[in-house]
Amino acid sequence: MTEQEMTGTVAGGKRKRVFDLPLDALTMAESVQLCHRLIAERGHWRADLNASIVLAALEDDELREYVETSAIINADGQSIVWAGRLLGAEAPERVSGIDLFLELIKLAPERGDRVYLLGARHDVAQAVAENFTARGVNVVGFRDGYWTPEEESDVVREIAATSPDLLFLALPSPRKEHFVLQHKHQLNTGLAFGVGGSFDVISGRLKRAPLWIQKLGLEWCYRFAQEPRRLLKRYLLGNTQFVLLALKARLRKRS
Question: Which residues make Cβ contacts (< 8 Å) with residue 155, sequence separation at least 6?
Answer without folding.
Answer: 118, 143, 147
